[in-house]
Amino acid sequence: MRICVYCASSSKVDKAYFEATQKLAEDIAARGITLVYGGGSAGLMGCIADNVLKNKGQVVGILPRFMDKVEWGHKNLTQLTLVRDMHERKKLLIKDVDGVVALPGGCGTLEELMEVITLKRLGKFTKPIVILNTNGFYDHLKLLLEKMIHENFMRSEHVEIWQFVDQPEDIIPAIENAPKWDSSAIKFAAV
After folding, report:
1. CATH number, domain at 149?
2. Strands (E) located in 47-191
3. Burial of 84: CB neighbours in 10 Å, binned 0-12, 13-18, 19+
4. Which domain holds residue 63?
5. E strand or H helix at 34, and its extent?
6. What are φ and ψ of residue 51, in 5° steps?
7. How many whole angstroms separate alpha carbon 173 and alpha carbon 12?
8. How many structural domains are present in the chain?
9. Which residues are CB-contacts of 5 (< 8 A; sequence separation ≥ 6)?
10. Model confidence over 138-186: pLDDT tens digits?
């Protein structure tokens, strides 16, 4: 199993986010799941990679070359793939994964998450998407997505695109028990 995790590169975030990230990393390694992530060495990105590796897990990083040039890349991964740009990075992050997880993060994390939600709505990505809502971080996003459905910018069926969980130990079960989704979603992508 391979899981893509989107998360923050900031090291200045509350320790609760680091604690949740560490718990997820331990769970990933214990279950023999390969972590696929953005290849960074700082913040929650560094935390998840370091803790998966510390627990004898496999970590694949996907990093744009310009980020490697400024030494943002993690130096001790199982595999580091350098890519041309952010677009190629996002494409490879979700290639052949069994699910996507969004931990708290900034605009990059949000942009990646919204793209994969859009791809799933269009039936171009069909795997589970789980959003970890540590300390209510994503409460406003959840409300916004619900508002999009309520005000007919999305269909009621689209609520099955994502799952919100509050605890890191609920992530893998949420992936395993996610509603089925397939490429036929394109038939009801429009409202």
Report:
1. 3.40.50.450
2. 59-64, 79-83, 99-102, 129-132, 162-165
3. exposed
4. 2-188
5. strand 34-37
6. -75, -30
7. 29
8. 1
9. 24, 35, 36, 37, 48, 100, 101, 102, 103
10. 999 999 999 999 999 999 999 999 999 999 999 999 999 999 999 999 9
Global confidence as pTM: 0.97
Rounded CA-CA distance 113/136 in Å is 17
3-class secondary structure per residue, 106-146: CHHHHHHHHHHHHHHHCCCCCCCEEEECHHHCCHHHHHHHH
pLDDT in tens, 102-120: 999 999 999 999 999 999 9
The angle formed by the CA atoms of residues 157, 152 and 188, to the nearest 5 degrees, is 40
Residue 58: C-alpha distances to residues 33, 49, 119, 134 (Å): 7, 9, 26, 24
Contact indicator for 103, 20 with CB cutoff of 8 Å: yes
